[in-house]
């Protein structure tokens, strides 16, 4: 199957983690100040939004109607060890009114579907928890 570009996010950052960032479409315009972990929060927000879409797609693929929308709390840890920085992540997923076994199946499928999950696989420690 041929590849198709769906979207390109474009941002401009000045000053790194102590500056500002703005998207080319004007939807995002943030001041990044220390010690606020804006980068980790932005990453968590983007990943959790994508993960919800992946859960919904996994449900559609299985012909399952979700009575309530999925919810994801993302926790992105910035760590340092041996002089090197690294990330750890937890995605705490709630699927109200879905049987636990089916909910677990959907979040495992979503973790295989979500581009953020694919990008981090094998690169950072990730825990996906059904809560």
Automatic annotation (TrEMBL):
Matching InterPro entries: KH_dom-like_a/b, OHR, OsmC/Ohr_fam, OsmC/Ohrsf
Pfam assignment, any one: OsmC
GO BP terms in the entry: response to oxidative stress
PANTHER family (alphabetical): ORGANIC HYDROPEROXIDE RESISTANCE PROTEIN-LIKE
Record family assignment: Belongs to the OsmC/Ohr family.
Name of the protein: Ohr family peroxiredoxin
């Amino acid at each position: 199957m041929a590849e198709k570009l769906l979207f390109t996010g474009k941002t401009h950052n000045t000053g790194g983690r102590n500056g500002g960032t703005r998207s080319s479409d004007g939807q995002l315009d943030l001041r990044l100040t220390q010690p606020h972990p804006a980068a980790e929060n932005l990453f968590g927000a983007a990943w959790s939004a994508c993960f919800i879409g992946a859960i919904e797609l996994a449900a559609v693929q299985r012909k399952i109607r979700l009575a309530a929308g999925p919810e994801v709390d993302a926790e992105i840890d910035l760590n340092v060890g041996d002089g090197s920085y690294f990330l750890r992540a937890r995605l705490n997923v709630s699927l109200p009114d879905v049987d636990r076994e089916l909910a677990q199946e959907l979040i495992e499928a979503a973790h295989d579907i979500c581009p953020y999950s694919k990008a981090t696989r094998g690169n950072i420690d990730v825990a996906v928890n059904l809560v």
